Amino acid sequence: MIDSHCHIAGPEFVADLEAVVARATAAGLTHALVILAADDQPEIEQAQAVAGRWRGVRFSIGVHPHAAGKFAAEPAAAARAVAAAIDAQPLTRGLGEIGLDYHYDFSPRDIQQAVFRTQIALARERRLPIVIHTREAEDDTFRILEEERAPEVPVVLHCFTGDRAMARRALDAGYALSLAGIVTFPRAAELHEVARLVPLDRLLIETDSPFLAPVPHRGKRNEPANVVQVAETIAGLKGTTRDAVAAATSANFVRIFAP
Prior knowledge:
The protein has nine helices and eight strands. By secondary structure, it is α/β, with parallel strands linked by helices. Helix 4 (109-126) packs parallel to helix 5.
C-alpha cells in the first residue's frame, strides 16, 4: 500500500519521525510521496532525515498557491526555486502540490494563476507528474491545465473533494484522482459517490498527513499508516476488498511516479 500524498517532513513529525515510519511500514506501506514546499527551507532540509529513515520515500516539490504571493514581483522565480530544489533532491518524482485556492485567497488570484502556469511549464520541461491542489477554483484550474498543456505529463488531483460532475470532468481530461481521509466521514455522501465512480485504474489514496485524519482518528494528527482506513472505506463503497484497492492504487502510483 502507498500513501500518495503526505507532509511528514513538516515540523509536526520531527519529534517522533522514526515511530511514524515504523507504524507505516508495520501497516504494510511500501512507499510514500512526501510533499515539500520549495519556499520552506527547514522542510527541504528535513527531507534528508525522512529519506534516511524510510527507503520507500519519494518527494514532490512545488510552491503551494498559499505561498504564491511571495513571488508577486516575478512569478517565474517560483519555478526557478522549484527547479533548484528538484536539482538538490534526487528522490524527486513529482512537481507539486501546485494550483489554485480561492477559499482562503492567501495570495492574489492573478498571482496564483501566474505562479501555477510557470510551474506547469517546468513540469512539462522536466517530464514530471503534476500534483494539483484546487479549492473553489475548478473552472480556472481546468482551464489553465488545458492552456498550459499539462496533460502532456500525468496529472493528479490530490485530496479530491469535488462532486461527481467534477470527477467526470477530471477523468475525461485524463487525470487521476486521489482520495484522502474525508472519504471515511459518514456525511461525505457526495464523495462516497465519487469513490464509486472513479475506476480503480485512475485512483490513488493518500492521507495528506498531518491533516484530515480518517475515522476513527478524527481530531488527531494524521499519519501515513492511516491510509489503510482510506483503502478500507473505498473497498466497502466499491464492493471489493482492501487488498484489491491497495494493489490497484499502488500500481497506479508506480505508473505515474516511477518510484
